[in-house]
């Protein structure tokens, strides 16, 4: 028998072996785990440790610049500062609150909430001018941080405000081109990382890690500042002269859709976009936002409502529809020629009205135009003639032409908030509806849809996309992209296009559009006087659409005068506006008097590929 001593020794050896094995297994597990942490997860834990030891501050990227077609800056950046506080680093809370409140003109209670909040960082105010930030910097307040920042700045204040739009406090686009091209303009923010101790206090003298921001790309637009300025001046003069609600003028190249100017007065100050410029009212029966006829003094303490601001920022030619009236006769005539149911020499008779079903629909000349050819009918803008033509064409062919001219779709312009047309369902178009559509009533389109359709009619049949953006450049103004847009060829035959150009030239040379005549240039166009809803209100939109030169159109312009007082006929008050516009801008863009024979359909104002 084994003695107790032998048994104890054997048992001890087993325990020792088990213990040694446990130690060995534990060592292997710990070694594997340590290796996993150090090798496999090393980067992860290193990043976490660094994050605990560092405080990160963002550096805003410089927003891309917006240029006109000639390299003139229309949206820029101004160097400003951002003021913030770090709770753990503040040594004298009351002094920080008192000084920031005094210099930044912010209520003490508002600042106190942020100063006393236990967080890594609290922003007190952004977009602080440098001279104000320097006053704070001179006080050397512990815990108060001053960082360089950028604020959007518009050198021309209200120029093209409904197009350019503006940015918010965070430099993100809110409306206009600023929001449409926001992704391109924004850039990528950088950062500054500073070492901190266990309490989150920055270690003085420690090196900072800095990642530089990447500036946003720039946008070169089709806008010409000189044309835009003159267009706005002309629109303001017209609004004041006619005491109108608003005046809109669009200037576009009908060959490629580039928009040289878009004035929608009254405009607003892009550098003070939340300050009302005019009295604002609600939407009228035609869906048009009327903004008032005169500028008003607004109490600086008054806070505008959201509706008032949206009405002020709203771009009518893009976001609202209207009944175009007689300018739509361009489409009616085009549909007739495309359906081969009309000849220029066809005869018509106008007694001053036309009976359609049980309706008596009058002409603007109540005594009638008598016997006339179609050419005379379009020169006279005679409603009975166009009602006859509409009946010849029929709803099916009429709608086919309207669809080809893009009137049932958005234009695709590079601005947000575009509206679309409102037409009768074709199944509901009977003889009365067909008659009223023929002279531009009982449906609604946007002014830009009309210009797009008319451009296709006179440019040989190409449906273009109206637009502002042309090139994208980097921060050194090297071109990195040319913005492309959809086009559709052959929507109108060349024969129809040539016929329509001749007819519309006659309208200006001898007809209702004669007040748009410009000596030395051949101008074509069409007048309109649209009666607003309700018809009993006796309120009108006077308009004129004109293009030049007629043989190879390079410029098309549309003016709309909303609710003029007194005389309201388009031929009397709208046509002269385009005549005045063309007299000044046609020589400027390089068109020769009598007549340019250039058959190249490209823009005469194209931006070359040089860097400015």
Summarize the structure.
With 612 residues, this protein is an alpha+beta fold.
Care to describe what's here?
The chain is an alpha+beta fold and 612 residues long. It folds into 2 domains: 56-188 and 206-216, Penicillin-binding protein 2a (Domain 2) (Alpha-Beta Complex); 221-612, DD-peptidase/beta-lactamase superfamily (Beta-lactamase, 3-Layer(aba) Sandwich). It has helices spanning 4-40, 42-53, 93-104, 108-115, 130-139, 161-164, 176-180, 182-186, 225-242, 306-313, 316-319, 329-338, 374-380, 383-404, 431-438, 447-458, 494-510, 570-588; strands spanning 54-59, 66-67, 73-85, 122-129, 144-153, 190-195, 209-211, 218-221, 246-252, 259-265, 347-350, 353-356, 359-362, 370-373, 469-473, 479-482, 524-531, 540-548, 555-562. The strands form 5 sheets. Strands 2, 3, 4, 5, 8, 15 and 16 form a 7-stranded mixed sheet that branches. A hairpin with a 6-residue loop joins strand 18 (540-548) and strand 19. The chain is elongated and about 140 Å long.
């Amino acid at each position: 028998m084994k003695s107790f001593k032998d048994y104890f020794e054997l048992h001890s050896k087993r325990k020792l072996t088990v213990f040694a094995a446990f130690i060995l297994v534990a060592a292997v597990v710990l070694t594997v785990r340590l290796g996993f942490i150090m090798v496999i997860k090393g980067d992860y834990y290193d990043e976490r440790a660094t994050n605990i030891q560092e405080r990160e501050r963002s550096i805003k990227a410089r927003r891309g610049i917006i240029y006109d077609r000639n390299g003139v800056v229309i949206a820029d950046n101004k160097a400003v500062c951002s003021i913030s506080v770090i709770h753990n680093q503040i040594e004298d809370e009351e002094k920080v609150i008192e000084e920031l409140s005094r210099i930044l003109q912010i209520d003490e209670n508002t600042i106190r909430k942020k100063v006393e909040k236990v967080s890594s960082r609290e922003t007190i105010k952004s977009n602080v001018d440098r001279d104000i930030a320097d006053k704070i910097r001179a006080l050397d307040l512990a815990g108060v941080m001053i960082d360089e920042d950028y604020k959007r700045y518009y050198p021309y204040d209200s120029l093209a405000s409904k197009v350019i739009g503006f940015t918010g406090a965070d430099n993100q686009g809110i409306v206009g081109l600023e929001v449409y091209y926001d992704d391109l303009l924004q850039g990528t923010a950088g950062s500054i990382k500073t070492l901190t101790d266990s309490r989150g206090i920055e270690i003085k003298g420690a090196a900072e890690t800095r990642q530089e921001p990447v500036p946003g790309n720039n946008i070169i637009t089709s806008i010409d500042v000189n044309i835009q300025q003159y267009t706005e001046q002309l629109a303001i003069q017209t609004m004041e002269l006619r005491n109108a609600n608003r005046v809109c003028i669009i200037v576009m190249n009908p060959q490629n859709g580039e928009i040289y100017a878009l004035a929608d007065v009254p405009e607003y100050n892009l550098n003070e976009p939340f300050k009302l410029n005019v009295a604002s009212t609600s939407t009228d029966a035609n869906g048009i936002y009327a903004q008032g006829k005169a500028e008003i003094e607004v109490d600086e303490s008054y806070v505008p409502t959201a509706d008032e601001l949206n009405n002020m920022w709203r771009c009518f030619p893009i976001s609202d529809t209207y009944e175009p009236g007689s300018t739509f006769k361009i489409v009616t005539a085009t549909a007739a020629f495309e359906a081969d149911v009309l000849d220029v020499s066809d005869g018509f008779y106008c007694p001053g009205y036309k009976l359609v079903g049980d309706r008596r629909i009058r002409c603007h000349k109540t005594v009638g135009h008598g016997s006339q050819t179609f050419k005379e009918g379009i020169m006279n803008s005679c409603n009975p003639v166009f009602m006859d033509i509409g009946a010849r064409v029929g709803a099916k062919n009429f709608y086919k032409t309207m669809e080809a001219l893009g009137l049932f779709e958005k234009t695709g312009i590079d601005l947000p908030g575009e509206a679309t047309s409102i037409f009768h369902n074709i199944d509901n178009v009977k003889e009365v509806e067909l008659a009223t559509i023929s002279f531009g009533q009982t449906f609604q389109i946007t002014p830009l849809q009309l210009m797009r359709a008319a451009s296709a009619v006179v440019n040989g049949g190409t449906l273009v996309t109206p637009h502002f953006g042309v090139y994208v450049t980097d921060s050194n103004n090297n071109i990195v992209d040319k913005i492309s847009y959809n086009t559709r060829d052959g929507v109108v035959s060349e024969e129809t296009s040539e016929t329509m150009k001749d007819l519309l030239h006659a309208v200006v040379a001898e007809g209702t559009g004669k007040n748009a005549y410009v000596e030395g240039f051949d101008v074509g166009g069409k007048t309109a006087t649209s009666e607003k809803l309700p018809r009993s209100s006796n309120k009108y939109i006077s308009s004129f659409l004109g293009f030049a030169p007629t043989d190879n159109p390079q410029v098309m312009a549309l003016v709309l005068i909303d609710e003029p007082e007194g005389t309201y006929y388009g031929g009397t008050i709208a046509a002269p506006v385009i005549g005045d516009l063309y007299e000044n801008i046609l020589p400027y863009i390089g068109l020769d008097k009598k007549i340019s024979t250039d058959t190249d359909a490209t823009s005469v104002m194209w931006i070359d590929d040089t860097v400015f």
